[in-house]
TrEMBL record:
The name this protein goes by in its record: HEPN domain-containing protein
Superkingdom as given in the UniProt entry: Bacteria
Organism: Candidatus Uhrbacteria bacterium RIFCSPLOWO2_01_FULL_47_24
Positions of the HEPN domain: 11-118
Membrane-spanning ranges: none
Pfam families for this protein: HEPN
Amino acid sequence: MPVTKYVARWLARAEEDLQVAELLIKENSSANTICLHSHQAVEKYLKGFLAHHEKHIRKIHELDLLVIECAKIDPSFEVLHGDAISLNAFYTPARYPADMPEFTMKDAKTAYAAARRIENFVLPKF
């Protein structure tokens, strides 16, 4: 089925998030922001997949739950569960700094790598 403009916007925004993360990695700065954008990119890729299949897109940020929704359409999505869980750990602390840990560049690179793995898995599904 062809990709609609609506779905294309989800995918474009996801790629923008990964581009921002990549630029910050090259500058070796803003680990928290890299983690946040890595999570956001995956959220948008998964929601784009759901939109592509004309499914209701829940207003949630838990990537593991989105993976479960995607796996109802394509069971192969279950392989993403581990990366989804690991990226969830970066989301809230990166957004809300009070009493939260600061992420390192190692954490940021881990989050970015997980996001790229998920991107490489999801994009061929369109």
